[in-house]
Amino acid sequence: MRTSGLPNFKKPWGKITQDLPKGMYTMKINNNYNSAGWEGTRSFVLTTLSLIGGKNYLLPTAFILISLFSLIASLYFCFRFRALKGIGKIK
Known about the structure:
The chain is built from 1 helix and no strands. It has a domain at 56-86. The chain has one helix at residues 58-83. The model has no long low-confidence stretch (mean pLDDT 78). It is mostly helical.
């Protein structure tokens, strides 16, 4: 098992490609790797994922906002440079 870069992580095990009917389900889990040595815990999560991944939109939103800010700043400096281009030239 590879060491995780973050203290909390999720490792997907499988994917269900069909709808599950309502009801009670039983799951048998074997402990093949003991995680008690570093006070680790295990849990089972069922989730629905969208086409872009999980439900945390912080990182894509931050990337879009930073890229928009960079675009606006670059356009501002480009037009500002063109406006000041003729100042200081000797005629």
